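=== Structure Prediction Worksheet ===
Name of assembly: unnamed complex
Input type: mixed (protein and possibly other molecules)
Chain count: two
Listed entries:
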Amino acid sequence: QVQLVQSGAEVKKPGASVKVSCKASGYTFTSYGISWVRQAPGQGLEWMGWISAYNGNTNYAQKLQGRVTMTTDTSTSTAYMELRSLRSDDTAVYYCAREWRYCSGGSCYTLFDYWGQGTLVTVSS
Amino acid sequence: EIVMMQSPATLSVSPGERATLSCRASQSVSSNLAWYQQKPGQAPRLLIYGASTRATGIPARFSGSGSGTEFTLTISSLQSEDFAVYYCQQYNNWPPYTFGQGTKLEIK
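=== Predicted Assembly ===
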């Protein structure tokens, strides 16, 4: 069965960096993209960006450009998300999600069908 | 960026009754709209995609409708496990993918 298993909770000081991992199993890793979505305490869902596990192409949310880097290691079927220059408002649960592609009416679309369990990142001095 | 708006923010319904949740997009997203369910301490779970197609394993009491800018998620007879937060998400125009702010479905 498809599983995305994320690394454990992190506590970081403002200005530091954090790198969260997401290990995939149960499917061919390079056949799907991975998106990262975060959720601040008591808040909604915010898409952070996407990486193709096939060729490493990325697309980041504009507000995070310059602070976020997404990578993959196909040898271990693991995706990574690094966020730099952390601020208190980066405190959130960070999720990885598999991008599932389906086609309808001659066009194809992607959305999120499987999610990791989430990683709490706390930014505090 | 397409803004997704959900209403109401909180919906109180008794078990066994019907719940109707709404989602509006700031511009047309065609039928490229998904609904997710999130329970406390858990990741979101895909319920509906293509505005009206149930994802694998989702019970028939969940149904979605709408197209363009107006969408509805209906839960026909609420079970105890259905009380959760529900999010709509558009995937017609990205980046970015955008989500609504959520509707909390609580027990009346």
